[in-house]
Amino acid sequence: MSELGASGSPTQQLSPIINNYPLALMFCAFGWSILLKSEEDFTEQLVGASIIIHGLATAFAGLFPMDRDPYTPKASLRGQIHGLAGMFVMISLIVAPCSVLFSGSYSIVFKVFSIVCVLLTLLFLALMIKAYKKRKLSGLFQRLCYGSQLVWLAGLSVRNEMLLTLINS
């Protein structure tokens, strides 16, 4: 994903405009909506805050492009900031699904779904690290890792929408 916006790539300027920034706004808006509905539920506040952090980190990842060569021995300052933002992107959507495990507000089905998504994220992360060291297919595992996190986020969104529908019926 980051290669499209990498320093010196033909799509460096366009990529964050059509990818990072709109996604960042959507993540922040979704996180904010969870915070607004959370009242005094700490778990919901943690989930909402984690999604907002995810959105902000997504924006920073677009604002600071990765180095053109991901295997460069010494990353530029922009590349280092991009990597740090990527770390927050990943960690924020590990914290959020893990936090629902300790809440009474979520069904056992959603908790199992959350565990599966986190385990897939960690599996793909381990495979990504291994692939990066071999310099082969790390981008594939990065996408699978992030994809498993987005599946959880979509599941959370569907769950929240279903709850709203039930409440308003």
Automatic annotation (TrEMBL):
Lineage top rank: taxon: Bacteria
Pfam family for this entry, one: DUF998
Membrane-spanning ranges: 17-35, 47-64, 84-102, 108-129
Keyword tags: Membrane, Transmembrane, Transmembrane helix
Keyword Transmembrane in annotation: yes
Transmembrane is among the record's keywords: yes
Record's protein name: DUF998 domain-containing protein
The species this protein was found in: Pseudoteredinibacter isoporae
